[in-house]
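Lab notebook page, bench 4
Experiment: in silico fold of construct C2
Operator: M.H.
Input chain length: 206 residues
Purpose: comparison with the prior construct
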Amino acid sequence: MKLVIIGAGGHGQVVADAALAAGFEVLGFLDDDRSLFGRKFLGMSVLGPIAAAHDMDAGCVVAIGDNRCRKQIVDLLGLPAQRYAAVIHPRATVSPYAEVLPGAMVLAGAIVGPQAVVGSHSIINHGSSIDHHDIVGAFAHVAPGCHAGGNVRIGDGAFLGVGVSVVPGITVGNWAIVGAGSVVLHDVPDSTTVVGVPARELRKGE
């Protein structure tokens, strides 16, 4: 399948590497930073602005790490879901009984267990594990080295920083943020930032 990578930054290059390893024919990158036009990364050129995706006969993946930015680009493009490809690195382990939705990225060393769902345009980054019956919402980002126990719910747009652990049965709310290295023992409300071991809400002045 032909694929264009939206975003030529660090995460875009990681996803391009995964896509090549997975057997995609990667045509190049799209990025709105005009100073990048014509430059090559991993031997592939930045072909033009993001809006050019409308005119390309190829699948797309929005490979930008920031969740809100990624959602904004998907919303602005307004492409049908079938234009988006899920990119799964061949060194990721994804159960045949799991579901990875269009636009999602599952990178090298990640594990996705049976009956888990990885939402559209979400990122399961290097070396993270999503256990059985977990649900990862759309536009979420599970950073490198995170581990979620079984029956965990990670909401739309939620961000789990590097090395987060979430015990089984927990819900991390929509657009919540869990700081790097935290251990989540209790549900995290929507749009809340928690940090620490155990994780607790970060309040102003702390």
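Observations: The chain has two domains: 2-83, 86-206. The mean pLDDT is 97.
Next step: discuss at group meeting.
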